[in-house]
Amino acid sequence: MSEAVERRPVNSDYAVSLLEQLKFFYEQKLLTDVVLLVEEKEFPCHKMVLATCSSYFRAMFMSGLSESKQTHVRLRNVDPVTLQIIIAYAYTGHLAITDNTVEPLYETACFLQVEDVLLRCRDYLVKKINAENCVRMLSFGDLFSCSELKQSAKRMVEYKFPLIYRQDAFLQLSHELLIDLLSSDNLNVEKEETVREAAMLWLEYNMDSRSQHLSSVLSQIRIDALSEVTQRAWFQGLPPNDKSVVVQGLYKSMPKFFKPRLGMTKEEMLIFMEALPEMPSVPTVMMCLSPTVVCYSPQAEKVYKLCNPPGDLQKVGTVVTPDNDIFIAGGQISIANHGKGSKLQAIFHSVNSFFWFDAQQNKWVDKTPMLCPRIKPSLVYCDGCIYAIGGDNVGGELNKRTVERYDCEKEDWTMVSPLPFAWNWSTSVVANGCIYVMTHDLMYCYFPRADKWVEMAMRKTSRCFASAAAFGDLIFYIGGLHVVSNSGIRLPTSTIDGSSVTVEIYDIAKNEWRLAANIPAKRYSDPCVRAAVLLDSLCIFMRETHMNERAKYAIYQYNAELDRWFLWQPVSERVLWDLGKDFRCAVGKLYPSCLEESPWKPPTYLFSPDGAEEFEVDGELVSLPQYNS
Fold first, then answer.
1. Of 147, 230, 471, 601, which has the maximum CB count within 10 A?
2. At what angle do helices 242-253 and 228-235 cross, to 10 degrees?
């Protein structure tokens, strides 16, 4: 009977020591038994080490053929610098990947069949995909049959299609990749004319060699989705040549129906970060409930659920770029709980995270983190960069003043000039290529090219927790709480006569503030006014409450000519329930088909004790809607 073998954990110290010895032997050229020849350079190595990490060398040295006995092996079509990186990885386990080396490194690793290097290069490339390189990454992934890279790049090409179809990389796409893109339902285009123009540009880039593809390319255009003006201009009055015959023939043969591209289904929505989650039907410790992300479509009057940020991230900064990219940054995560029973409290840790929202996949994608942890930083987009300004808790007054900038093309963060003062309750907007930061009665303007902050005109009132939005050459500062002189005492209202919300307008050209018409909020008691440019007009989303009444919401629209606010849309309680008081609001265009529709579920306090399926809302008897949890 054999004895049981005692299994012990691997001695990691011995493994590290072994690698160090191998590296020493390689550097000193001790006991080497093969020399790799690349161009004019020689790399003395150990067959055993090369065979361990490379299937290519394993097959070469263990085949039993003449190659296995060679002491010198010449490698063709291999870059010596890249080979040196792979050899260093084989002896140390450390892989140095940069933007400049990743592609040749992938090519060489593919040729030498170094699987781990391939995977790490692939992950690096996938993470680096952006609007500038996505078309090239699509071709690169296709060339090396890397499905993960190819699919990730294709999704970015589809999403950024209106920005990239004029790039040289797009015009040089293979016919097969072009057809795959033009036939996609997921193109983020609002008009089919964009697809038609892209197809024509590709054909005309080299018409002599691509004329054979005329029919297959143009047949991907959803002709009936084109406007009547475009159809008449394109299909009628063409000169009598082979091209016009093909085009007119396609027009006559195409079916008169189409499936809209994904971009044609976009709706501009209000995005609410850190809304309260739907209250459970049984008592729950409040700290266990993580805020959620929802969005509201004013056009459809529907609510949708966005994927929550990773790790139950809270108190983030949010920005939506002009290209409709949604980013969140900073925030805090729960790392522990302490206390007993209902007195449990969460312990939070501030983070420097940075995420981009993939609207097609409804998920958050990790990007290059900020340089500093920040809780509720103010995020703005200005001239191709995202700025993270201040934050509530970043380690003292000096750190609260810090400002850092993210270059969307280079995908890295750098520090810029700090704020003149440390503010907890500031709000920021961008107008005319400059950043304006406001709090109390102060405003500072940041000029990106000069990297300088300049104090601007003071406001007529001193308020914090206000909301701001830039519209044209005007900046609107709305709502908030009054601050009494320098004492820091906050009064519990931002109204002037008890039934309206204070609005001030800053004229950028004149560098002066003026009081504007108040917003007629009849039951306003909390600082829950969120300014936004919605559907090309200045609006506010308001949470109207009084004492212990449940929340009511409404969207007001500003008429500049009349200097008046009009109730644009009351938001039914049966559509949007209580978001809490700490939610933040942004505006972005999203795809309803890619989101989870959030059916309204009445809170438990509306139900009668006898369990009846009817309850009263606003004096009406309402039946309990069908809801699948």
1. 471
2. 140
| 242: amino acid identity, one letter | D
pLDDT tens digits, one per residue of 161-218: 999 999 999 999 999 999 999 999 999 999 999 999 999 999 999 989 998 998 899 8
Q: Please report, as a single letter, which amino acid is at residue 193.
A: E
CB atoms within 10 A of CB 114: 24
105-109, 304-308, 622-626: segment of lowest average pLDDT: 622-626
Q: Cα(622)–Cα(601) distance, rounded to whole angstroms?
A: 12
HSE value, Cβ hemisphere, 13 Å, CA-based, for 79: 14
Mean pLDDT computed over 103-107: 95
Which backbone phi and psi does 447 adopt, to 5 degrees? -100, 105
Q: Is 483 left (phi over 0), alpha (psi -120 to 50) or beta?
A: beta
CA 306, CA 293: separation in Å to the nearest integer?
5
Phi, psi of 203 (to 5 degrees): -65, -45
Q: What is the β-pairing status of strands 529-534 and 354-358? A: unpaired
Question: For position 602, what pLDDT does the model report?
Answer: 56
CB atoms within 10 A of CB 177: 18
Tell me: pLDDT of 236 over 50: yes
Q: Considering the entire predicted model, what is its pTM?
A: 0.83
Q: What amino acid is encoded at 362 in this protein?
A: N
Q: Which two tokens stand for residue 548?
A: 């212990």
**Do the beta carbons of residue 32 and residue 24 sit within 8 Å?**
no
> Which has more confidence, 465 or 470?
470
Query: Quick one: which H or E segment has residue 232?
Result: helix 228-235
Which residue stretches of 317-422 are H helix? 397-400
425: region left, alpha or beta (phi > 0 left; psi from -120 to 50 alpha): alpha
Q: How many CA atoms lie within 13 A of 418 on its CB side?
A: 12
Q: Is the dihedral of CA 39, 45, 48, 54 positive or negative?
A: negative
Cα torsion angle, 342, 344, 350, 355, sign? negative
Per the listing, tokens 């300049």 go with 454
524 pLDDT higher than 60: no
What letter represents residue 435's amino acid? Answer: I
Please state the rounded mean pLDDT for residues 143-154. Answer: 96
**CA 222 vs CA 147, 163, 204, 219, 250: distances in Å:** 28, 20, 20, 8, 11
In the DSSP assignment, the letter for residue 341 is: G
Q: Which is more confident, 139 or 396? A: 139
Is 339:385 a contact under the CB 8 Å cutoff?
no
First to last CA, the chain: 58
State the Cα angle at 588 between 586 and 591, rounded to 5°: 135
pLDDT tier at 147 (50, 70, 90 boundaries)? very high
**CB hemisphere CA count around 380 (13 angstroms):** 23
Q: Look at residue 287 in the predicted model and tell me its pLDDT.
A: 44
Q: Quote the tokens at residue 32.
A: 């080497």
